[in-house]
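sry for the spam today, last one i promise. struct tokens for design, 184 residues
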């Protein structure tokens, strides 16, 4: 078969077909394959969040506060740089509060995840990308400080700041307010 199944799975993970688009496919998300050219290795993504002892990674549903007392869930589909928030907002992006107990970045030096706590009362900043009516969640990042770069070994950090809506940690049973459950 010559890797046929791997090829099909790789394309399935990298592309989603939208019938309304005559060109056929629109690239939504790509996650590095960790050196393996034929597959997507979600275990090798560069970031993770932890909520209620559950590890949340790109490609999975993540809950967030989009208004006071309004909890929702969308697929975490990448990152948005803080330096580009103006552009994202012009495209219809909305800032949201992503509750988490901890976050991790993968070190560029040894490829290990380096974890740190999200201080109480603060959240991870998220952004809802409208994506032509099929919204996706992006985690907002900022440049690492020199100290963070030494500790985490990664040039970008999630933006941790006071909430716009709520810093409340939701119940252990996440709300299913979205039509999307998981991208992968």
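last one done:
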């Amino acid at each position: 078969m010559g890797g046929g199944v791997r090829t099909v799975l790789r394309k399935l993970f990298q592309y989603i077909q939208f019938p309304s688009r005559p060109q056929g496919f629109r690239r939504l998300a790509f996650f590095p394959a960790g050196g393996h050219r034929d597959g997507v290795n979600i275990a090798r993504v560069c970031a993770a969040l932890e909520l209620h002892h559950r590890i949340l990674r790109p490609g999975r549903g993540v809950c967030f506060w989009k208004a006071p007392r309004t909890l929702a869930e969308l697929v975490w589909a990448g990152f948005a740089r803080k330096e580009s928030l103006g552009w994202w907002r012009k495209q219809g992006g909305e800032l949201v509060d992503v509750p988490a107990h901890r976050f991790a970045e993968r070190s560029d030096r040894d490829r290990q995840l380096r974890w740190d706590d999200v201080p109480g009362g603060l959240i991870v900043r998220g952004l809802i990308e409208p994506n032509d009516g099929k919204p996706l969640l992006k985690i907002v990042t900022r440049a690492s400080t020199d100290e963070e770069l030494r500790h985490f070994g990664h040039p970008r950090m999630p933006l941790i700041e006071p909430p716009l809506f709520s810093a409340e940690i939701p119940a252990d049973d996440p709300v299913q307010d979205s039509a999307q459950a998981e991208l992968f």
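Residues 11-42, 175-184 have pLDDT under 50 and may be disordered. ok im logging off now
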